[in-house]
Amino acid sequence: MYIIQIASECAPAAKVGGLGDVVPGLSRELAIRGNAVELILPKYDCMRYDQIWDLQMVYDHLMVPFHDQSVHCSVFFGFVDGLKCFFIEPHSHHNFFNRGIYYGHNDDSERFAFFNRAALEFMLKSGKHPDIIHCHDWQTGLVPVLLYEMYQNLGMTRPRVCYTLHNLGHQGLTGGHILRQVGLNPGPLMNRDKLEDDRRQGAANLMKGGCVYANFITTVSPRYAWEIQNGNGGNGLQHTLHVHGGKFGGVLNGIDYNVWNPEIDPFIAGCYTIDTLDDKYKNKEALRNRFLLRHDYKPIIAVVTRLDPQKGVDLIKHAIHYALATGCQFVLLGSSPDHAINNDFLHLKHQLNDNPDCHLEISYSEELAHLIYAGSDMILIPSAFEPCGLTQMIAMKYGTVPIVREVGGLADTVFDADYAHKPYHERNGYVFRDFNNQGLESALHRAIGLWYAYPAYFREIMENGMRYDFSWCRPGQHYLDIYDYIKR
Questions:
Q1: How far is it, in rounded angstroms, from Cα 56 to Cα 305?
Q2: What is the dihedral of CA 248, 252, 258, 261, to 10 degrees?
Q3: Buried/exposed 94-109: b ≥16 CB within 10 Å, e otherwise
């Protein structure tokens, strides 16, 4: 099968969050299974070009209609961790992808609408007719709209579209003029059956457009699929997902064990397996040395996250103080695009700067994240909502016990050591339900208590987590089944 992934991120070259990990992880699994897989991405100026091998221009003079003119684009090709990637670079006064950041501008909807048109124009002009176009999140929501409203009539009759929703907190709300800019007629499209937002009359919802026009819609965990159809998690998209429920389902994300694996990890102080678990503590020592923490008989609780309200930043702050007051050490790695949140944590870092049991690293380093996963005893994920979450899956592979809120993919993957309806050998962490300090403390108290009072039982929880298989093997097959279904 010939599959093209269209996305705004692909780690390690371009990554903001989980989307950046999912796209290459799934693509690699599909390629391993014998499929021809290519990726189309924007060519950002802030990409990690050191992670792109043999980058070269392969298509110049791609003229992409936009407004009442055409924008000249160049297309580059390179390998990202062995994956075949095409990068589209527009030459325009709009300066779409030379902003120094991936997202966060007032014209984001315009930037990615253009990218959608450019990706399809490139496929048409270069004669690419895949069996499947798999596109991701609001940034590519116009791909199926453009395919079926325009490019099918130009000869692109072969592709079918799978559209994955990664986070309904961002849906690409914009004006109908965006459609006109990329050559679509807003008249017949701006109604409640198509692209008009269900809650804002006159607003175009790019994610909704993707849902309406795609041949199949997935989201990144079964629990999140239920939450966004039946609860507030849909952020207004519930009705659309019910209308199109016959082509909608949740597929739990995987993680790439070639990247996240303590047996082979080049970024940690000592590799280890479930049979050599004592070697994990070489990493605990290295982590303490790295952050100048005292060497003492205490557990290390970690947070590795984007500091965003979705991630429970107020609960994270409370957890820092609670952990330090209950005989733990605390390590945080993360930053926020919100200056107020970032400054708040920088202020907290300054307050705790001399504490030998705490280190807050207000930045992000992929390499450092590996050492934190390997060196910590527990990892905290107190999310308000969490479509899937990769952090808890990665942590378990490293024998680090997750403490999570019971939402989305966290509820699908973490089973409470005390209360889960699972046999004991399948219980792998601690779970709390209420999004408040009391709920958080209930789980932290039990986890910290077990670490101190019953270390042998705590080690069983660690080992239970390490035995879980969160690779891309199962979800990869699930996606191939979906592709086969929509090709019929």
A1: 34
A2: 170
A3: eebbebeebeeeeebb
What pLDDT digit, counting tens, does each position of 102-158 carry? Answer: 998 999 999 999 999 999 999 999 999 999 999 999 999 999 999 999 999 999 999
CA angle at 136 for the pair 121 and 42, rounded to the nearest 5°? 50
Per CATH, 2-254+473-487 and 274-467 having the same topology is answered: yes
Is the Cβ–Cβ distance between 275 and 351 less than 8 Å? no
> According to CATH, what is the number of the domain 2-254+473-487?
3.40.50.2000
pLDDT digits (tens, 9 = 90+) for 439-455: 999 999 999 999 999 99
| Contact predicate 286/371, CB 8 Å | yes
Q: Are 287 and 375 in contact (CB under 8 A)?
A: yes
Distance CA 401, CA 443 (A): 12
Helix (H, G, I), strand (E, B) or coil at 252: coil
Dist CA 319 CA 298 (whole Å): 16
Q: Is 95 left (phi over 0), alpha (psi -120 to 50) or beta?
A: left
Say how far apart CA 422 and CA 114 lie, in whole Å.
Answer: 48
Length of the chain: 488
| Residue 438, SS3 per DSSP | helix
Residues 6+ apart with CB under 8 A from 199: 236
Q: Do 420 and 484 meet the contact criterion of CB atoms below 8 Å apart? A: no
Q: What is the CA radius of gyration of the chain?
A: 23
Residue 254, both tokens = 């995987």
CA-to-CA dists, residue 411 to 184, 399, 404, 414, angstroms: 41, 19, 8, 6
CB 293 within 8 A of CB 264: no
The position carrying tokens 């429920």 is: 245
- Domain borders along the chain are 2-254+473-487, 274-467
DSSP string, 435-468: SSHHHHHHHHHHHHHHHHH-HHHHHHHHHHHHH-
Write the CA distances from 176 to 113, 142, 197, 349, integer angstroms: 12, 12, 10, 44
The hierarchical CATH code for the domain 274-467 is 3.40.50.2000
If pLDDT is split at 50, 70 and 90, which confidence band does 99 have? very high
395/392 Cα distance (integer angstroms): 5
Q: Is 78 helix (H, G, I), strand (E, B) or coil?
A: strand
Q: How confident is residue 17, by pLDDT bands cut at 50, 70 and 90?
A: confident
Cβ contacts of 291 within 8 Å, gap of 6 or more: 331, 359, 361
